[in-house]
Amino acid sequence: MTNCDKCRFRTLYDKKPQSILGRLWRWHIGWCPGWKFYVNSLPDDERRLVLEKYNIQKVLNRIRM
Q1: Rounded to whole angstroms, how far apart are CA atoms 2 and 51?
Q2: Is the pTM of this model over 0.85?
């Protein structure tokens, strides 16, 4: 189980995406196995919303196919 939904860095990204810590979080989710597990554990509708919110095109394109 991950704490991605309560992650402090994710909250910082939501408030100030261009901050150093916000950009670090955004880079981090590109390879983090915990984030991938978290996203895959979400129901389909909620997963799509999270992926769209954070503009994660790679996964969104796979879902749309």
Answers
A1: 17
A2: no
pLDDT 10s digits, 2-16: 889 899 999 999 999
The Cα–Cα gap between 65 and 40 comes to 17
Q: Which long-range contacts (CB under 8 A, 24 or more apart) does 3-11 make?
A: 4/34, 4/35, 4/38, 4/39, 5/38
* Residue pair 24/9 in contact by the 8 Å Cβ criterion: yes
- End-to-end, the C-alpha distance of the chain in Å comes to 28
Please check whether residue 39 is in contact with residue 29, taking contact to mean a CB–CB distance below 8 angstroms. Answer: no
Banded model confidence at residue 57, pLDDT cuts 50, 70, 90: confident
Structure tokens at 33: 């196995």
